[in-house]
């Protein structure tokens, strides 16, 4: 530990497997299933492969180990394939496993579905929810990861929260984050296969280029866009607000390739 | 192009590993300063507590915003000279609002598991740079020295805008000039204050625009709360002088009550 560089590496929060274990062969992208744990060849970060086809970051090992015991089921994919999977966000603590706090505030929170937090109003409540060793079950979360959580109502009665029930309800990260498969819009030589699509808010749309040339799905005013998609490439985006979006392909006359997305 | 970016990323992995990713700390602990009270703070101040060296941006909405690492801090500030010190107890009373993102225009960013390079626009909006030629046109011959690797865990703080296509659709100097402060970049607005006294909430009914915050301040000598009738939100127990703020993002009518008495109030979010 004399080497300061090594010391810093250890300090680094973003989560890296301790030592390069033996490299495993890459599995093809098409063999991945929703809910798989994945990593690339060069970098050791592990991600959760969500139902929406995006990868979710474990911000540190403490978060990882609330969901998993070990790294036995991690699938290796090529660096290129990993790059093709967009990042969707961060994984939060599994509900019910630990309480969390930040170091600049003594408030202690119980974790519920989707990273929602409930402040514990007193020591007595913490004790009745987590038993005599409650004070050993609190993790300090870095300030910069605290915005991944959402503060909800405080707990002033023990009957308002059950750690066991929360754990049981949190079957997996897909469930916890309420992830669903993306709506797929295929780009064909003749145009978008779903030129007018209506979706619910908070739904992901994936544009996949099945045409024989470069294409894009670019919002008319440039507010969002896939960028250049080579044949076979794809781009996914979440639509969080209601409204109507018009988009086109920069590589094809607007008349042939225009789409409308109605978000309700 | 892609290959060039990929090569670059290797050296950045090393650079990034050296950075503290966990909320930035001042390197050498400066001498303790005289303390200021929260009431004396102005929106836009930089603040820190006594025990921990993390520096925060004090927003117009009364929340503190985290600098996830020193690289982000130094896109906005060139030193720590104007940081104000609070007591730890006072810092505790200021809630965390979110993370500060890169100042628009200053740097390009990427993540180490993807070779795509992005420019940063207002409010942490990223736009992919499609080619080396566009990067060169925007950032000059040293463009490849002006790319920061962002840890994966902070990538979720950014929004994806349309890709750039042509250099003229982004102006480095224009973006920098528009980003006058973090308040402007995040479009933070002042919270609406509801005070609690022995006679109840004041004002007992308020109407606010969606996406703004309400701050409850207990000025009474006994405990009170503002607890949502639908039980999804609440201040928790507020002692004398205690305060709690919450953002209301969705339009609707939010009724609340005092868990320690008979007071009731309403927030109409439009």
Number of domains of chain A: 3
What structural class is derived from the secondary structure elements of chain A?
Answer: alpha/beta
CATH architecture of the largest domain in chain A: Sandwich
In the CATH scheme, the class of the largest domain in chain A would be Mainly Beta
Identify the CATH homologous superfamily of the largest domain in chain A.
Cupredoxins -  blue copper proteins
Shape of chain B: elongated
The percent range for strand residues of chain A is 25-35%
Gross geometry of chain A: elongated
How widely separated are the two ends of chain B?
48 Å
| Amino-to-carboxy terminus distance of chain A | 56 Å
Q: CATH topology of the largest domain in chain A, which one?
A: Immunoglobulin-like
- Helix content range of the residues of chain A, please? 10-25%
Q: What is the number of beta strands of chain A?
A: 18
Radius of gyration of chain A using CA atoms only = 22 Å
Compute the number of strand runs of chain B. Answer: 18
Major sheet of chain A: 5 strands, mixed
**Class by SSE composition of chain B:** alpha/beta
Topology:
The complex is a heterodimer of chains A (264) and B (270).
Chain A: H1 4-11, E1 37-39, E2 47-49, E3 55-57, H2 61-67, E4 74-76, H3 79-84, E5 87-90, E6 99-102, E7 105-112, E8 116-119, H4 123-130, E9 138-140, E10 150-151, H5 163-169, H6 173-177, E11 183-188, E12 191-192, E13 196-199, E14 203-209, E15 218-219, E16 234-239, E17 243-248, E18 258-263
Parallel strand pairs in A: 1-4, 3-5, 6-9, 8-10, 11-14, 13-18
Antiparallel strand pairs in A: 1-2, 2-3, 6-7, 7-8, 11-12, 14-16, 15-17, 17-18
Chain B: H1 2-17, E1 46-48, E2 56-58, E3 64-66, H2 70-76, E4 83-85, H3 88-92, E5 96-99, E6 108-110, E7 118-121, E8 125-128, H4 132-139, E9 147-149, H5 152-155, E10 159-160, H6 172-178, H7 182-186, E11 192-197, E12 200-202, E13 205-208, E14 212-218, E15 227-228, E16 243-248, E17 252-257, E18 264-269
């Amino acid at each position: 530990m004399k080497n300061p560089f090594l010391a810093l590496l250890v300090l680094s929060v973003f989560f890296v497997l301790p030592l390069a274990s033996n490299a495993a062969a890459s599995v093809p992208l098409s063999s991945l299933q929703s809910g798989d744990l994945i990593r690339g060849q060069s970098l050791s970060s592990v991600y959760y492969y969500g139902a929406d086809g995006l990868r979710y970051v474990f911000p540190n090992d403490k978060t990882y180990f609330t969901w998993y015991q070990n790294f036995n089921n991690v699938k290796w994919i090529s660096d290129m394939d990993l790059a093709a999977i967009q990042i969707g966000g961060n994984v939060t603590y599994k509900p019910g496993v630990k309480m969390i706090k930040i170091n600049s505030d003594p408030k202690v929170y119980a974790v519920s579905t989707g990273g929602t937090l409930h402040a514990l109003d007193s020591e007595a409540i913490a004790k009745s929810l987590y038993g005599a060793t409650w004070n050993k079950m609190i993790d300090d979360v870095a300030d910069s990861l605290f915005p991944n959580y959402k503060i909800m109502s405080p707990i002033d009665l023990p009957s308002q929260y059950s750690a066991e029930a929360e754990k049981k309800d949190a079957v997996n990260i897909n469930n916890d984050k309420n992830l669903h498969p993306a709506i797929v819009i295929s780009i064909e030589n003749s145009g978008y296969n779903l030129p007018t699509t209506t979706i619910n808010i908070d739904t992901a749309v994936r544009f996949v280029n099945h045409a024989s040339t470069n294409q894009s799905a670019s919002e008319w005013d440039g507010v969002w866009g896939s960028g250049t998609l080579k044949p076979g490439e794809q781009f996914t985006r979440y639509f969080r607000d209601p409204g109507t979006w018009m988009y086109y392909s920069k590589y094809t006359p607007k008349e042939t390739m225009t789409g409308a997305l109605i978000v309700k | 192009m892609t290959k060039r970016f990929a090569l670059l990323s290797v050296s950045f992995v090393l650079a990034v590993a050296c950075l503290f990713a966990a909320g930035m700390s001042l390197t050498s602990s400066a001498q303790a300063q005289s303390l200021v009270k929260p009431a004396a703070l102005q929106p836009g101040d930089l603040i820190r507590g006594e025990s921990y060296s993390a520096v925060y941006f004090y927003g117009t909405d009364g929340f503190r915003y985290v600098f996830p690492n020193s690289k982000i801090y130094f896109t906005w500030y060139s030193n720590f000279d104007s940081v104000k010190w609070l007591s730890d107890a006072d810092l505790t009373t200021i809630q965390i609002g979110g993370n500060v993102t890169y100042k628009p225009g200053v740097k390009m960013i990427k993540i180490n598991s993807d070779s795509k390079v992005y420019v940063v626009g207002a409010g942490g909006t990223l736009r992919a740079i499609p080619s080396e030629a566009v990067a060169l046109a925007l950032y000059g011959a040293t463009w490849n020295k002006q790319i920061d690797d962002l840890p994966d865990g902070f990538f979720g703080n950014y929004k994806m805008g349309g890709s750039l296509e042509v250099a003229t659709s982004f102006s480095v100097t224009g973006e920098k000039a528009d980003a006058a402060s973090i308040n402007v970049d995040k479009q933070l607005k002042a919270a609406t204050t509801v005070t609690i006294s022995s006679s109840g909430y004041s004002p007992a009914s308020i109407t606010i625009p969606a996406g703004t915050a309400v701050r409850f301040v207990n000025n009474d000598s006994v405990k009170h709360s503002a607890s949502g009738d639908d039980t999804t939100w609440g201040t928790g127990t507020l002692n004398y002088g205690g305060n709690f703020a919450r953002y209301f993002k969705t339009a609707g009518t939010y009724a609340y009550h005092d868990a320690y008495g008979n007071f009731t109030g309403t927030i109409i979010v439009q």
